[in-house]
Amino acid sequence: MGLAQKPQPMQPSTHQITAMKIRRRVLVGDRVLIGAVDWAGGRGVIEGVFERRAEVADPPVANVDRLVLLFALDQPQPEPATLTRFLVDAESTGIPFVLVFNKVELVDDKTISYWRDRMKSWGYDPLFLSVDQKSGLSALEETLEGQTTVIVGPSGVGKSSLINALRSNQNISEEDPIHKLVEQNSKWFGEQRVGTVSKKSGKGKHTTRHVSLLPIAGGGFLADTPGFNQPSLMKVTKKGLAETFPEIRKMLAENEPSKCLFNDCVHLGERGCVVKGDWERYPYYLQLLDEIKIRESFQLRTFGTKREGDVRYKTGVMGVKQAEPRLQLKKHRRVSRKKINQSILDDIDDELDEDNWFDVKQRSRKR
Fold first, then answer.
1. Tens digits of per-residue pLDDT, 125-143?
2. Are residues 80 and 212 in the same domain?
3. DSSP E strand boundaries for the chain
4. Which of 256, 273, 303 is a domain's end point?
5. Exposure winner among 50, 188, 211, 224, fewest CB in 10 A?
6. What is the pLDDT of residue 69?
């Protein structure tokens, strides 16, 4: 069993070939079953993918234990709408996450207090740090050991720089299995490439182009991901959107045992709704709700109400669940003998009916 990694450049991509054979996409972080191992060449063939305990869509990473939502207080400045989309996306995964603000050295204490109070009103308790000055990292390091952590955020906020700082800040003992890799100057332990913020737009440039899973001392992995400003929110539903806002959860909890008059209430200020619109992010909630309604309406027209998943799980080697592609209905299944016999009888009946009709027609002509 192994851990799926991004193939190294200038080498044949066995990951891509195998993914086509097993008819399933292999994600970074997948636990996979490897066969036909070429020990000399350091290659193998992925023969199966084990069941995922968690998955992140943006970016696509499997078996994630924790998310780190990284934003900068300046260069680029945080945008409330973008920040809300990232928070909603993180809430929808059900994976524990921490909100982190970087580049505190570029702003004054008043700005830090402003964002701390503002995030508290949203229902979050963020961490503030400076990757450049390597301050405030210890509070974040405590949550990383032994876990697979994905760092996400817009371009230019310092994701790769944070990973470099966290990995260079570790004391690796000689007994640690990865100590030898560090001595060999393994690519796994090289620093991630970093970029600068565009002077023209004030936004970050896309320096990281792919998802990389990087080991850390003491166990665990860090995932460096490409920056993007608009999470797709494809897994957020119209009914589930309200649960991704701590403000709505708080209002519903404070009004218990009273509830909204209608069970399918989406909190648009209808009669009997206990959620009021006097909170900062309510306009963002309405905007996202409209977006999801349009998407769900399109999916309903295109795919219908029921779509069978393309993956099913079966118990494989040593009782471990493995994923395999689900066959399309009535395409790869053998026709039963009963159905074949019935079709033959139907054809015979049709021929008899035609013969009888011909006889009746001939008799009518003779008369």
1. 999 999 999 999 988 888 8
2. yes
3. 2-3, 31-38, 43-50, 55-56, 61-62, 66-72, 97-102, 127-128, 148-152, 212-215, 221-224, 311-315, 321-325
4. 303
5. 188
6. 95
Asked if 203 and 211 touch (Cβ cutoff 8 Å), the reply is no
What pLDDT shows up at residue 94? 93
Contact 191, 164 (CB under 8 A): yes
Residues 6+ apart with CB under 8 A from 202: 75, 76, 77
Q: Is 185 helix (H, G, I), strand (E, B) or coil?
A: coil
Q: How far apart are CA 213 and CA 225, in angstroms?
A: 9
Q: Is the pLDDT at 65 greater than 80, yes or no?
A: yes
What share of residues in the chain are helix, strand, coil (percent, to 5)? 35, 20, 45
Query: Is the domain of 261 the same as that of 196?
Result: no
Tokens of 138: 């210890």
Model pLDDT, residue 208: 46
Which alpha helices (DSSP H) does 94-178 contain, by range? 109-122, 138-141, 159-168
Give the CA diameter of the chain.
Answer: 109
What residues pair up with 223 in beta bridges, in sequence order? 150, 213
Count of CB atoms situated within 10 Å of the CB of 67: 23
One-letter amino acid of 93: T
pLDDT at 202 over 50: no
Alpha helical stretches, state H, 123-272 = 138-141, 159-168, 179-183, 246-254
pLDDT in tens, 321-340: 555 655 555 555 566 767 76
Looking at 43-47, 266-270, 273-277, which range is the least confident one?
43-47
Nearest to 62 by CA among 23, 28, 15: 28
- DSSP code for 278: -
Question: Do 272 and 149 belong to one domain?
Answer: no
Does 115 score more than 90 pLDDT? yes
3-class DSSP state for residue 120?
helix
Residue 253: both structure tokens together? 């909890």
**Residue 56 near residue 29 (C-beta atoms within 8 A):** no
The sign of the torsion formed by the CA atoms of 249, 250, 253, 259 equals negative
